[in-house]
Design brief:
One of its GO terms (biological process) is glutathione metabolic process. It catalyses: RX + glutathione = an S-substituted glutathione + a halide anion + H(+). One of its GO terms (molecular function) is glutathione transferase activity. It is a single chain. The chain has 214 residues and is α+β, with helices and mostly antiparallel strands. The protein folds into two domains: 82 residues, 3-Layer(aba) Sandwich (Glutaredoxin), CATH 3.40.30; 115 residues, Glutathione S-transferase Yfyf (Class Pi), Chain A, domain 2 (Up-down Bundle). The protein is built from nine helices and four strands; from the N terminus they run E-H-E-E-E-H-H-H-H-H-H-H-H. The protein has a four-stranded mixed β-sheet with strand order 2-1-3-4, covered by helices on one side. It is globular. The mean pLDDT is 96.
């Protein structure tokens, strides 16, 4: 099998790549990395990602890291497979790219911190910092206000069709739906409907099943 993903089924970044591969209907090998044992901080993993973060991705002799960059490669290289996640029209793709940047720069800035505080730290036996949670909830709410306005005009962030701009939200969204932050999403009807829509996609449900089976 040419495609390999080295990582953890619990990693939001790895889950992002799994979701993309599933949307494209591609077969791949999942190579588990024991992060508790620090395997991601030593060889041979560092030869795949010198920053020591999961996932690392291989497609034949091509080696990549950074999940959003990996997904852009998958969407372009396998454009004729599965569900289209990008647009061929440059103007439409510009809108998709814009919202991909919003996810990475605005949404994830708060969502990742909330996931760390509310999900990951308790799993590691660490205490949640309530002050950080409250601060980041306020910041996330501001971002979701912008999303609510956008989704009142468009079914998906990038336009009429599901794209990478939506997909990239799924890992943190999935985790946060099991916390008090769900209320922040649910308070905005268009955002709430969008979340329900994309979380129900079969490709994402396969990712959830993979995590639950670990």
């Amino acid at each position: 099998m040419a495609i390999k993903v080295h990582g953890s089924a619990f990693s939001t970044a790895a889950m992002r790549v799994f979701a993309c591969l599933n949307e494209k209907g591609l077969e791949y090998e999942f190579v588990p990395v024991d992060m508790r044992a620090g395997e991601h901080k030593k060889e041979p993993f560092l030869s795949l990602n010198p920053f020591g973060q999961v996932p690392a991705f291989e497609d034949g002799d091509l080696k990549l890291f950074e999940s959003r960059a990996v997904n852009q490669y998958i969407a372009h290289a396998y454009a004729d497979k599965g569900n289209p996640l990008i647009c061929q029209d440059p103007r439409k793709m510009a809108i998709v790219s814009l919202w991909m940047e919003v996810e990475a720069q605005k949404y994830d800035a708060s969502a990742a911190k909330l996931t760390w505080e509310l999900i990951i730290k308790p799993l590691l036996g660490m205490s949640t910092d309530d002050a950080i949670v409250e601060e980041q909830e306020v910041q996330l709410a501001k971002v979701l206000d912008v999303y609510e306005a956008r989704l009142a005009q468009s079914k998906y962030l990038g336009g009429d069709n599901f794209s990478l701009a939506d997909l990239h939200h799924l890992p943190t969204m999935n985790y946060l739906m099991g916390t008090r932050v769900k209320e922040t999403f649910d308070a905005r009807p268009h955002v709430s409907s969008w979340c329900a829509d994309i979380l129900a996609r079969p490709a994402w449900q396969k990712v959830v099943a993979m995590k639950n089976n670990q």
